[in-house]
Amino acid sequence: MTVGAGQSGSGTEDQDWDGDESTADLLKTVGKQVKLWRERAGLTQAELGAAIGYSEEQVSSVERGRRVPKPGFLDAADEALGAGGLLAAFKEDVERARYPRKVRDLAKLEAEAAQLGAYASAVVHGLLQTPDYAQSLYRLHRPMLDEDTIERSVSARMARQEIFSRWPAPILSFVQEEVTLRRPVGGRMVLRGQLERLLEVGQLRNVEIQVMPIDREDHAGLGGSFMLIDPRTGPKVGHAEVQQFSRVVADRKEVRRLDSLYGIIRAQALTPRESLAFIEKVLGET
User: Fold this and answer.
1) What distances in angstroms separate CA 134 from CA 24, 69, 99, 157, one per listed residue?
2) Strand 171-177 to strand 113-120: parallel, antiparallel, or no bridges (unpaired)?
3) Which of 53, 113, 240, 246 has the fewest CB atoms inside 10 Å of its own CB, making it the most exposed?
């Protein structure tokens, strides 16, 4: 899955925010806390900025809830203001706010999944990617992405992989085109690490990985990649993405069509056991 890419400056500044209302409330709360601790310490915004390596404008934007502070900002402010960990405690929630909005929305759907199935035709599916592989993909993006956008996007993608350690464990299945196992994204060593990751994840009891060989004459998935998410409560939904266009499929007729299509694709692919043996073979050739 690809991730949206907003412009966020040189990478030394924190990201301006343009997301949803709940995130706005969070950033306002964090900003108020920074301001209260700064005023309690008797510092101006410029003085706090100088103490923690940020500009007065950056401190002002954070305090007004207009900018998403990086973890380093909160750590440094916490120490400089003697907040005893109360500002640093916001890091995890604020870090999620730095992710592109459509990734946050997708992560929410995945967080509710009792079952998830995904077919990936061009690259290794995002939930299966290693950090090096994901970073290499973002560096191939055109137009080019700045370093901060790449960092945020990779972090967001890795955060979604918490699904593998969730309990109760969701049932997860993936069908990968053979070409995704052979395309040397990031070079030979990055690809080897990615193949090793697939073998590792494929051993989990709640995960099945299948490979669609390129020599299959019958292939129902030539229309492109997609994902199906069956939540613990509520109706099943689909998710489709091409280039930078992403959409959730909620129409029941369309979801049923994708569900049927995924079942056919799985039947046409190698079995999970055969697939792991196939991945091991490709790894040995890489």
Assistant:
1) 28, 23, 15, 8
2) parallel
3) 53
Per-residue tokens: 168: 């109760």
Strand partners, 209: 174
| Helix%, strand%, coil% for the chain, nearest 5 | 50, 15, 35
Phi, psi (degrees; rounded to nearest 5) at 67: -135, 140
Q: Is the dihedral of CA 3, 88, 162, 256 positive or negative?
A: negative
CA-to-CA distance for 14 and 95, rounded, in angstroms? 11
What b/e string do you get for 126-150 counting C-beta neighbours within 10 Å, with b at 16 or more?
bbbbbebbbbbbbeeeeeebeebbb
- Any residues with CB less than 8 A from the CB of 172 and at least 6 apart, and which? 113, 115, 116, 117, 127, 163, 164, 206, 207, 208
pLDDT tens sequence across 106-146: 888 898 999 999 999 999 999 999 999 999 999 999 999 99
Q: Decide: pTM greater than 0.90.
A: no
Q: Please, which residues bridge with residue 247 across strands?
A: 240
Question: Does residue 15 register a pLDDT over 70?
Answer: no
Q: Please, where are the H alpha helices in the chain? A: 21-40, 45-52, 56-63, 71-81, 91-97, 101-111, 131-139, 147-160, 178-182, 188-201, 252-268, 272-285
**Cα dihedral sign for 27, 30, 32, 35?**
negative
Q: What is the pLDDT of residues 66-77, one digit of tens each?
A: 888 888 999 999
| Phi, psi torsion values for 202, nearest 5 degrees | -65, -15
Task: Please give the structure tokens belonging to residue 22.
Answer: 């709940």
Q: For residues 70 and 151, is the Cβ–Cβ distance under 8 A? A: no
DSSP tag of 227: E
